[in-house]
Amino acid sequence: MKQYQELRPNEITKKLKKYNEIISENGLSFFIGVSIDLASGFDFEDFKEHFLGKTVEVIDYHKPEAKLEQFNHYGKIWTELGEFYNNLQLSGVIILYRENFHFLINPKNEQIIHQNKNQSIKEKLLSLNGLPNNDSLPSKLMYLNIVKE
């Protein structure tokens, strides 16, 4: 899920860049939808780590033969921030994985989804977390659209 500079942008990076100006100018909530194909080798935890961040631990930190000069100032354990911290305009990610919906919400307090006017939408989204992809879920998502208007 890393976006290396010498490669063409992946679909998530394209969407973030494409809509960034519109989102910022209009103060909109912005969610990306992802359907994870099992053949891709990714699972929900990979996306969670990519967007929320991860803890990094150097196992051989105390061994003298470890060549860790570039990491010594971090210490043995540190946190690597995820994409939410680099993309404040992203409100969250809606993920379909193994026929269940999962929602990741940007944890940054400055994000528009945390404003009082969006509280009911955020709560409704999180209440749908883990629900199976069935006929009733699209109508619940449509209901969220009506609530927003």
Describe this protein's structure:
The chain contains 5 helices and 5 strands. The protein is α+β, with helices and mostly antiparallel strands and 149 residues long. It has one domain. The longest helix has 16 residues.
SSE inventory with pairings:
Layout: H1 11-26, E1 31-35, H2 44-52, E2 53-57, E3 77-81, H3 83-86, E4 92-97, E5 100-105, H4 119-127, H5 136-148
Parallel strand pairs: 1-4
Antiparallel strand pairs: 2-3, 4-5
Helix pairs in contact: 4-5
Alpha-carbon Rg, integer: 18 Å
**Main beta sheet strand tally, sense and closure:** 3 strands, mixed
What letter string, H or E per element, gives the SSE order?
HEHEEHEEHH
Please estimate the helix content. 25-40%
- Overall outline: globular
Strand adjacency order, main sheet: 1-4-5
How many individual helices? 5
Secondary structure class reads alpha+beta
Number of strands: 5
Unreliable stretches (pLDDT < 50, length at least 5) are 142-149
Task: Please give the alpha-carbon distance between the first and last residues.
Answer: 34 Å
